[in-house]
């Protein structure tokens, strides 16, 4: 019975202080990190395209389907190779190679350049076999999830640079972009971006109820085990799941055509930014909290306006880039879409620099205009790098990407559970760098293995 008893959290205050009062890193370093992750995925696409495993038979809906030993073995080998080609290097860059970020970026740039030249020179049909954009979007969404899952545990160890953690007030840390990236990734391929039929009230409540339940579950579980929570992030009771649920509800209630979402989203963000400059920012950044529910959760509640505006911009851009002039869910795959993604990436980075310097510095805590611009710029940079593989024949999602792509929410929930267990049973602040890296490596492999094999066996974590 003692083994099953949940341990107390004696280092709660120390762990909260460990992730508090941070100032982040530079926008240049964020851009460098945003290149490394998708570049590793692209290299794996190219190296694994010739030996990709054909698993069409695995996708048949048959409850009595028996997986052959050879297929299990091949899948396992492919998964291990994917892990050490994608996840392992990312983990290295986030920890022991953190001081070599720019060197790693330059090396990967050169490697990609030479791969493009080599592959195109050996293929007479390279430009005629552009892959469907759906694959690039899937890779982009998976990259967001992998980085998020790795960082939520790594941040609790000293081996993870403090400049990558979430900032206290203003600044740009790698983890600051997490929740914004989730919002943008969902917006780009949402039913609103596809211009599907408006969601009914019943459907809207049904789609958000799992997020609300997850938010309540997280609140109860963190309170029950005395888990460390940085109040300045969302507030006393608010959390990430409530923000996603609020954005979904607002979007469903205020039904806007995707062609107009850009204008409405921009107006919301500008109005919210004006309010911030008129004194709302001082209120949100202050440590003073009254006993009312709004004051207790001021960061989470007010930042919803920023995330809603960000979501509407994502819907508009997703419709414009991938679904315009097409029917419903069909994604257009022309060269112009890729050119527009690159153009938007450069434009948004320039806009971020201007807003950060002349309007208000980037702040994830408030989700201000500069933060929205930074999130969009970073996400479109990741998408533009992933699209580099479209110039080459044979592009195919890796086994690891397929597994995550089919179970994005399930992977995130599993990562949160594993992170909580590690923090409750391990003193993350006192372990050696070698032990910390070993724990992170084991956590990452367990997460990837469970998620991938669940997909391999036809299990999908779908709650609505």
Can you give me a brief rundown of this structure?
The chain has 464 residues and is an all-alpha fold. It has 17 helices and no strands.
Question: Can you describe this structure?
Answer:
By secondary structure, this protein is mostly helical. The protein is built from 17 helices and no strands. The protein has helices at 12-18, 27-48, 69-94, 101-121, 133-154, 178-188, 201-224, 231-234, 240-253, 258-285, 293-296, 298-323, 335-358, 369-386, 399-406, 408-425, 433-456. Helix 3 packs across helix 5 (133-154), helix 9 (240-253) packs across helix 12 and helix 15 packs across helix 17. The longest helix is centred in the middle third of the chain and has 28 residues, at 258-285. It is globular, with a radius of gyration of 22 Å. Mean pLDDT is 83; it is low at 50-67 and 124-131.
Average pLDDT works out at 83
Poorly predicted runs: 50-67, 124-131
Strand content: under 5%
Mind describing the biggest β-sheet? none
Number of strands: 0
Task: Tell me the Rg in angstroms.
Answer: 22 Å
The class by helix and strand makeup works out as mainly alpha
Number of helices: 17
**Relative helix content:** 55-70%
- Reading the helices and strands in chain order gives HHHHHHHHHHHHHHHHH
Distance between the termini: 36 Å
The backbone outline, from C-alpha atoms, is globular
Relevant terms:
single chain, 464 residues, mainly alpha, 17 helices, 65% helix
């Amino acid at each position: 019975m003692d083994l099953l008893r949940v341990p107390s959290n004696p280092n709660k205050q120390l762990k909260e202080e460990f992730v508090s009062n941070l100032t982040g890193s530079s926008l240049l370093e964020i851009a460098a990190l945003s290149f490394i992750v998708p570049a590793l995925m692209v290299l794996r696409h190219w190296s694994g395209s010739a030996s990709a495993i054909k698993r069409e038979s695995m996708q048949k809906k048959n409850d009595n389907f028996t997986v052959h030993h050879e297929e299990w073995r091949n899948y396992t080998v492919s998964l291990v190779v994917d892990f050490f080609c994608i996840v392992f290097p990312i983990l290295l860059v986030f920890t022991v190679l953190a001081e070599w970020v720019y060197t790693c970026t330059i090396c990967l740039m050169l490697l990609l350049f030479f791969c493009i030249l080599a592959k195109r020179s050996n293929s007479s049909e390279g430009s005629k076999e552009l892959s469907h954009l759906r694959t690039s979007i899937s890779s982009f969404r998976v990259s967001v999830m992998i980085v998020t899952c790795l960082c939520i545990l790594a941040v609790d160890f000293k081996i993870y640079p403090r400049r990558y953690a979430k900032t206290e007030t203003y600044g740009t840390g790698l983890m600051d972009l997490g929740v914004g990236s989730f919002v943008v990734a969902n917006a780009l391929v949402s039913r609103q971006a596809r211009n599907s039929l408006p969601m009914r009230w019943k459907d809207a409540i049904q789609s958000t109820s799992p997020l609300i339940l997850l938010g309540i579950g997280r609140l109860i579980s963190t309170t029950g085990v005395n888990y460390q929570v940085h109040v300045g992030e969302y507030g006393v009771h608010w959390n990430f799941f409530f923000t996603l649920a609020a954005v979904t509800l607002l979007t469903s209630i205020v039904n806007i055509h995707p062609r107009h979402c850009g204008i409405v989203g921009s107006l919301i963000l500008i109005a919210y930014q004006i309010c911030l400059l008129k004194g709302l920012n001082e209120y949100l950044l202050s440590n003073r909290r009254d006993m009312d529910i709004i004051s207790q959760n001021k960061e989470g509640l007010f930042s919803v306006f920023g995330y809603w505006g960000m979501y509407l911009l994502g819907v508009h851009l997703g419709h414009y880039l991938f679904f315009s002039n097409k029917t419903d869910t069909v994604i257009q795959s022309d060269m112009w879409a890729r050119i527009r993604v690159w153009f938007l990436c450069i434009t948004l980075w320039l806009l971020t620099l201007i807003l950060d310097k002349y309007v208000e510095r980037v702040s994830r805590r408030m989700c201000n205009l500069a933060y929205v611009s930074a999130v969009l710029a970073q996400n479109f940079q990741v998408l533009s790098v992933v699209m580099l593989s479209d110039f080459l024949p044979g592009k195919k999602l890796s086994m690891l990407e397929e597994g995550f792509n089919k179970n994005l929410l399930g992977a995130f929930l599993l990562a949160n559970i594993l992170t909580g267990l590690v923090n409750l049973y391990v003193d993350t602040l006192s372990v050696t760098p070698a032990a910390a890296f070993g724990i992170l490596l084991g956590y990452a492999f367990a997460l990837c293995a469970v998620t991938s094999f669940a997909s391999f066996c036809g299990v999908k974590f779908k709650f609505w």
